[in-house]
């Protein structure tokens, strides 16, 4: 077979792989954006909508009632009836906003260090003092970039208690012994780091 023909086949294959990588990247980005909308933005918007409805209801009652003492007392009683719901919605909206901000920060941190990241958020753990949310982060990238990502987690505005870290790689070299100590050495190729942690919210 002619060498020029073979070279064209190789070049065509490379182009296909390049376009496949672009398509994979776009699909992944769409999935991440959709997940953020479904799990964070939509509940946040729903809570704001409910809060606005309650506030509008109170305003309508204030406008429609007469200025006599009896009507005023009814309005006050109705306000007190809705006040716990409004306070609870305020807390929910504030918490959702902080969670969304936290997820965005983690995504930006992964982008800064050129890491692929998957975020799994568990169910809230009941606590009298704090809101505790389990968190699992799966990161893919170079060992150095993963380490820098981990170091930057320590300066986040939310307290993150790292409970376990697992690192796996097909490119791990044999342990290098120094006296009695031995420590695996990782190449610059891709590794996967899984972080299991808990986040604490007030």
UniProtKB/TrEMBL annotation:
Q: Which InterPro entries match?
A: PilO, Transl_elong_EF1B/ribsomal_bS6
Keywords, A to Z, come to: Membrane, Transmembrane, Transmembrane helix
- One GO biological process term: type IV pilus-dependent motility
Transmembrane segments annotated in the record for this chain: 21-45
In Swiss-Prot or TrEMBL terms, this protein is called: Pilus assembly protein PilO
């Amino acid at each position: 077979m002619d060498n020029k023909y073979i070279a064209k086949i190789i070049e065509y294959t490379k182009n296909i792989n390049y376009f496949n990588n672009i398509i994979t990247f776009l699909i992944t980005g769409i999935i991440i954006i959709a997940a953020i909308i479904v799990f964070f933005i939509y509940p946040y918007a729903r809570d704001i909508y409910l809060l606005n409805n309650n506030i509008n209801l109170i305003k309508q009652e204030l406008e429609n009632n007469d200025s006599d003492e009896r009507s005023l007392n009814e309005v006050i009683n109705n306000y007190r009836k809705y006040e716990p719901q409004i306070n609870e919605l305020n807390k929910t909206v504030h918490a959702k906003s902080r969670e969304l901000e936290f997820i965005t920060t983690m995504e930006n941190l992964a982008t800064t260090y050129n890491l692929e990241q998957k975020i799994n958020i568990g169910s809230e753990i009941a606590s009298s003092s704090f809101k505790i949310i389990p968190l699992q982060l799966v990161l893919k990238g170079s060992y150095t970039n993963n380490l820098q990502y981990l170091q930057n987690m320590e300066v986040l505005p939310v307290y993150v208690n790292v409970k376990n870290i697992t690192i796996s790689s097909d490119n791990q070299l044999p342990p290098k012994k120094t006296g009695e100590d031995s420590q695996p050495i990782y190449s610059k190729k891709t590794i996967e780091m899984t972080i299991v942690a808990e986040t604490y919210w007030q």
